[in-house]
Give the backbone structure.
Amino acid sequence: MTSFPVTKTGLRYGLASALAGCFAVALIVSPVRADDDPVLARVNGSEIHKSDMKAAEEELGASLAQMDPATKDENILSFLIDMKLITKAAQDKKIADTEEFKKRLAFAHDRLLMDSLLATEGKAAATDEAMKKFYEEAAKQMGTEQEVRARHILVETEDEAKAVKAELDKGADFAELAKKKSKDPGSADGGDLGFFTKDQMVPEFANVAFALEPGKISDPVKTQFGWHIIKVEEKRNRKAPDFDQVKAQIENYVTRKAQADYVAKLREAAKIERLDKPEAKPDAAAKPDTAAKPEATAKPDTAAKPDAKAPADSKTPAKK
């Protein structure tokens, strides 16, 4: 199923206007063709090469994700044919001579240069060595963080929680009682929450769970979800996932961080004047010893670190 409309002529109206600027730059300045870059179609004598297909596929991205290879290639080639036809019609109407087009072309030109340079910087930074170094540092930090595996029984009132605790004190099986008494949707497996870190639970629950020794059962604990009885089954230091499991996340982080650092470096070396707002004037009345010290400009944090934590288990209402 396509994610954009296809007519009998193959014209993708939704994509044509969005991509016209970027493709205009790519098509106006055509690279030298290699012998292994065959011509796939001609439109009034203008050639469409295999390399054009690759450029279009990169630009269309997610719009082609659900297509099988044959359908995808057909749609891309049809789109490029339509683009050739429309480009010629636009040239005949002298659209390129309008001020609006010139502005959009200049923007597309600058954007393409920016994207190309940042892609190069990011790719150069995301080496196997850099990714493994980041992984090893993160794994060391994770090794000092504790995880707890616990069960819980969740009820509505404190009196119900006290009654459950009394049954447990008499020797009732925790897992069986959780199946019968707990209102937690995950109670079918005996209230087992699996392993979790302290910040994955609401504070009232986490503080008690991490204070208990394995095998011990808590007194009633109140949270926003109700009243809990908690049993800790096991404690351990958090284990880092295998490198291959998080390699894609690490590569994305290292790439984006390198790009953000590169932009920050350019900003530091540049003279940037903001004319859209008046420059803040220093407060003449401020005393030297009370005046706020200027803070260093923070680097733009555009690269979110990969989250190596286990995803929150939606079956338990105690999780944040």
Observations:
- Residues 12 and 42 are 19 Å apart (CA to CA).
- Residues 1-33, 284-315 have pLDDT under 50 and may be disordered.
- The first helix runs from residue 13 to 28.
- The radius of gyration is 30 Å.
